Amino acid sequence: MAVHDQPHPHRGLRFPSPRRAGAAPAVTDETTAAAPATRAYAFAGLRILTGFVFLWAFLDKVFGLGYATPSGKGWIDGGSPAQGFLSGVAAGPMRSTFHDWAGAAWVDWLFMLGLLGVGVALISGIALRLAALAGTAMMAMMWIAEWPPAKHLADGSASMSTNPFADYHVIYAIVLIALAAAGAGATWGLGRIWARLPFVSRNRWLL
What we know:
disordered N terminus; globular; 8 helices
């Protein structure tokens, strides 16, 4: 005896179709419209906080605010902002080079101008592409100086590295690039005004 499956009409309980019932879609028009604004605010907040990280480092090293830089050891007191860090490099392929650079005036000026420039650019929302380029270069040099891939320092002690590749320098660099790519200076910043300036309009790399 052969049994064939035949469609049987069900005349009893039926579930209404959401489309026919006029049910609201899962994502409303208001939600869709609010997403870009929320994203812009998130990027703006990230931009300002990241800028403050760079600007605070500059201020602390200039005035010796007693945090990373002890009081009386600031740049205005005759201290070298980069000497302590560079002279303490204990691993990596550029260890001897960084030791030679420690205390050099040109290194201090480049380092401090980089901190100031990136910090002001991020907080104000202008020249984010230049800030991303300069900040990424700084983070790359600091990554090489700390050299996270090393398990041991030059004296044989443990390096205490928590990750051989993706440390906070890499994260900061990615954040800078993302902020520039997203044009994050337009919200809570001077990005729109900056972009309309004639010399910036002619040189888009200044955005």
